[in-house]
Every structure is written in structure tokens, then in C-alpha cells.
């Protein structure tokens, strides 16, 4: 990515954020996963994209677009076109190149400004796009969370990314509890908290330091079995 950015900046004079988008757009046509080689992410061309539709991205229908935008209020900042002269766009909560769908549950109305901010923030994690997509495939929330933090291989994972991936099959209100429960399975991780100087909000990161293979069968059942607060229940199971 470093080389692609430098090259395109030189040839086309484009900002790095533009380049990131072009690489993403390539995924509509080509299968080109990012792979870590000698400590750096490199893009490897493997072939045509499987869901390539005539070479062009399937657009969201006008009806869906209208339905998503109907609240006429940005889902992040709450501003409205009428009161604040903002322009509304349809945003994918989970980006498409991270495996997010065009289902209405994955769409939300955002003002252009929030949309651009969110895209720029998410672009920081684009090198993990394949890891995110793969983690999200896991059928259980513990599995999605565990696979995600494992894929970061000792790098810090922001809490909001864990929430997003944990919720990719259905919303997980208890994603923090699910994360803590990994410890019952023998996993270890560290957390750090920092105050965001811009928003003054506390941000939290997680970093995995040790993991165990998943139990055979249901992870949730194994967690319940090992949970000391469920002692009575597990004894009556035996
Ligand atoms: Zn907004």
C-alpha cells in the first residue's frame, strides 16, 4: 500500500485517501486480498472477484435509498438538511469491502461530513479488511470477537471495531461481556483507555496476548459451563 500510494501520488497527484478508495474499488472486479509479507501488508492478485456483476457495483435501488434517507436526520450528528443545510447520503454501517451487505439493516442516513469522517477513520483499518471479513463469518459472537483480536496479532484493536464485528450477524449489546468471557476459555488480553482530545470521549483498545483453540461444539455452552457464577447449574448438568 505504501508503494501504491507513493506511485499514484506521483503519477496522478492524488491524496492517499483517494488511493485507498481506488484499491477498494478494485475489489469489485478482482480478488486481491492484503497479505502480511515480511511485516508489511501487500496486495496479491488472485483472480476475478466472485460476485462480479457485469464489472459494475450493484447500486442500491431508489426505493431502498428513499427509505433509508426518510428520517432526514444524520444518524451520527443529528443534523438535518432543513435546519443545517447538510447533504444526506446512504452509508453502509459495515463497509461493503469488509463484508457489509446492502440489506436495509446495514444502511443508515449520514450527512456528507460524518460520512467522510467515518470513511477516513475506517480507512485506518483497511489493511485488516480480509481479517474482518473472515472473523465476521464465525457463527458465534465469541468466535467473531476472538478471531478479530487474534487477527490483529498483538496490535491494539479499537473497541468500536470489536462491537461492529461482533454485531455483524446480529446486534450484540453484550459484546463487552462476550469479550470478557473469552478469559473463561483461557484467552488473555490487555486493554488501554485514552481520552480522545477532540471529542473528550474515553476510547478503549484491546490487545490479545494469548489464545486457545475453540471448543468443539457451542462456544456459548462451554462458557456457561466454565462460568463460576453458573456453578450450581453446571453441577446439576452432570
Ligand atoms: Zn452528521
TrEMBL record:
Keywords: Endonuclease, Hydrolase, Nuclease. GO terms for molecular function: endonuclease activity. InterPro entries: HNH, HNH_nuc. Residues 219-238 are annotated as: Disordered. Pfam families: HNH. Residues 222-238 have a biased composition (Basic and acidic residues). Gene3D superfamilies: 1.10.30.50. Residues 63-116 form the HNH nuclease domain. It comes from the Bacteria. This is HNH endonuclease. It comes from Nonomuraea ferruginea.
